[in-house]
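Lecture notes, structural biology module. Today: joint structure prediction for complexes of two components.
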Amino acid sequence: MKNNFKNIFKNGLGQLTIPIIAILLLVIFNLIRDPSFFRITIEIDNAGNRVLAGNLISIINAASELAILAMGMTLVTAASGGQDISVGAAAAIAGSAFVKVLKSGGNINGLIVLLAFVVAVIVAMCFGAFNGTLVSIFKIQPMIATLILFTCGRSIAYWINGGATPTVDSSIVKAIGGFIPGCPIPTPVLIVIAMAIIFKLVFHFTSLELFTQSVGINGSAAKLNGINSTWIKLLSFIILGACVAVAGCIGVSRLGLINHETLLIDIEMDTILAVAIGGNSLGGGKFKMAGSIIGAYVIHILTVTLYAMKVPSTDVKAYKAIVIIILVVIGSPVIKKWFAKTAARIKNKKASAPMKGAQ
Amino acid sequence: MKNTKTFRREPLTDSQLLMTIAICIFLVMYVGAMLIFKGGFLRANQIFDILNDNAPLIIVSCGLTIVMIGGGIDISVGAVTSLVVMACALFLNNGGNVYLSMLLAIGIGLGFGLVQGFLISYLDIQPFIVTLAGMFFARGMTTILSVDPQKVNIDPIHNLFETIHRGALVNTSIDPQTFNTSTENLTELVRDGKMTFFEAIKNMNFRTLLEGKIKIDWLGYTAPNGNRIPASMEYGVVIALLCVVVIFLLLKFHKLGRGFYALGGNQTSALMLGINVKRTRFLSYVICGLLSGISGYVFLLHTGAGNATNAVGMEMNAIAASIIGGTLLSGGVGNVVGTFFGVMILNTIKKIVVTSGLNAPWWQSVTTGGMLCFFIILQSVVIFIRSKVRRSRISKK
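The predicted structure, tokenised, for the full assembly:
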């Protein structure tokens, strides 16, 4: 245990340094600004449940979709060295399929919700496979390949429900987007935890992580070592498809309706940002999924802090951009090298100072 | 022996081949539209309409092509365009000089280019993230600058016409007969999104510039009621075409332009050839920023008003146009003339969709997506076959 701590101090947290520092800075800033910012209370919601409430809970709750998408995006980024910019559009398609199946039957019971979810996952996986095929077999840059779905995805979602924005009124769907009766923690948060555990188990019991990293670092070298790099790339896009479906279903359940134009709008940029803030290289290779998840929460704490400071919602973007630039500048290799050099110089001075004193 | 070698024609480069494909497809598409739909497509006005509407997009796409040839990406271009439109509109409305407003536009664009270029090339940060932040910043600044619709005080005495003249755009969903100009009602309409405010420019010097058009009489047509309608081209189109030509020459003949290709093709080789890699990359972003500034001014020349939702999604359109024109995101391959035709293809497709009666809103984006898919796969196959042929030729030698 002691050794572990020593190692952390000695080597730093590696890739996780920047996101953790960012989250700490934001928390400290908020504590100074308004100590009651992090107060958590237990309140009774409309349905009569005892639920947790407070800024912190709402941050963690609201960042759920982003965190789930960031997990999938990390894999895609690591394997293909590019990003999928169609996640928002694909989530709209998955959400539309989800609602379409829900509305097709009479009354909504657990089985139908499960069926709808499975359909949404399959649909999103198919679109993921489409993107993946373009990237892995046709060797197209991921950003360009997913530009196709980015352009027409929301129109396909529009077409699925015939241009309407149907509402879903069901206690089960409400429970997915809000609270399960008797459980004070928001359900989306539980889903995020479940997804994280699933990924952890998959990485533990299979060699997916190793294979993905080796494909990302050098595809042809991985191929020579017997790894099917085409399949790994395709697989990463299919996994992202599943994540997209989960995020889309949460988004739909939260509001109880599908609006193809506004469901998870602009989330693709935030997702890529979360991956980058997490310290992952956008050029592929090594990755840490924990970093991306923390990155997603950093983005949301930042947004909520700005809201709490009474910044109008339309202006938030400008302030967000400044913080992002500061973060990436601190994390840039040139600045890191400069810091290391300065630290070494100070150390040398300290080392040479007593010698001077001895003379 | 030596003589025969000099007479052998050089094979087409990838850039030239992809550009040729784009131009051919545009011609086939346009001639096909002429034959099938006749009417509007037979008139020169159709081409001029497309050009007038898309002059800003052409300029932005040119800048993006340079960045993409250098192996980078800039997604802030649309947002910078929108910021320039808003800033210039406000500047002109507060009694600014027209020439100074041009300087302002160029200054904003150049500023974004310089900062982003510095961060990307000298601090070695991923271009996607830097320009994403640039996009957020520009969009945020646009909304900060724009008049907050809910706070606008509307004098209840003014009638509907004057309200519109002062810069309120009323959507068609409001019935003008029952329209109530009381302050509460207008505020409510704005809140529901049925009405948006923009900065309509009242500066008279600018308005003359705005309404000035180059009229080409012999290309026009005679309307059914006997009026002669000349083909008209806005000044923005001239600027756009000038940009295309200048950048074409820069990429083709100037040392810097060749440097962009070398940089995008292989960074290490470019370094070994003695190219200042950092400065070349920096300059590619500076030129791109400068062009977004110019594009913003051209946008203002076209619309004559600043609105917070101007040029939304322009960056993706510009990327799509560059790709269709044969620029590869991986760098080293591309041509600005191809990009010009990429913009034309994108918008001709939209015109064709509208003309053929597919008015449902999803058709345009679905056909655009399909078109992109077709081009991307075609390019990938072409590049693959060429590299295979080249490899077999080398192995034969």
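Point to remember: The first strand of chain B starts at residue 168 and ends at 170.
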